[in-house]
């Protein structure tokens, strides 16, 4: 085995030892004792208790419809009923002449998104939640109001070899053996003017890289997004929505081009972008472009045409997700500057994009202009 790998694993064992020492030192803490208590309920193995016996001298209450609980309703009005297709599928979309499967894929360069015909974001949202949880992800952001759903950082366990180290130490402390990769996915859901839904997935990734002359330390570095992985996720989603694997692959392979030229306009030290397409399509593309930069969308207001964004530090997010970060880190986030990206109609089938201040005036700061430059690069 490579010496550097052995040293790295030894370092991780040192972290395990330090972790045990810290836990023992905290044994007097009531919160920790409660957390480690042996009588905590295990909901996976809990059994149903026997029914309570009703004493014979008590009369049975009249259970009529007025005491019955109302039927449970699905979130956001309930998932839409599936529609049969000519191919025999029961699809979440509404089949039509152009889309016999009720959905299709559009593309702009290496970026792809799914269009679900005849369904609103409210009808798609419950199925989207099930998709991520069924595939083992923890949903970190769940905001149907803004149309943003994102997962927490997840370790790619498929990258971990099944060797002696994992079989021994890994059985005791699984976190001591890391694959060295973390992935996060962000889903953006938008309503189109014809009542359909645009659904896009953006991949973010971090990788642990060994550093130092003897490779005994490490640091986390950002990995580039993986368009092929994003396409694979869309394929899996389409299968969740009623298509077969072959049908989903075919729709990705036959993605319809939807890009438009972007022009830069200079005015008094500020830059604006002109997209040769209507607002609804430009709104979606700008959201996708922001997802692929180091800026995170905190909120968005489609009626005002505003994306509220801030600079995203993936390294800080990973540190907060660590074992001791969850125990000891402050819940108060560090203040970061928020930027307002404005998307508004300029003319017939032309949309303007720029960064504005809180008063709606063009933001001429260097950071704001950097955002415009990044958007221009992404949109082209």
Automatic annotation (TrEMBL):
The keyword Transmembrane applies. InterPro entries: BamC_C (IPR042268), NlpB/DapX (IPR010653). Pfam families: Lipoprotein_18. Keywords: Membrane, Signal, Transmembrane. Gene3D superfamilies: Outer membrane protein assembly factor BamC. Residues 1-27 form the signal peptide. This is Putative transmembrane protein. It comes from Candidatus Burkholderia verschuerenii. The lineage of its organism: Bacteria, Pseudomonadati, Pseudomonadota, Betaproteobacteria, Burkholderiales.
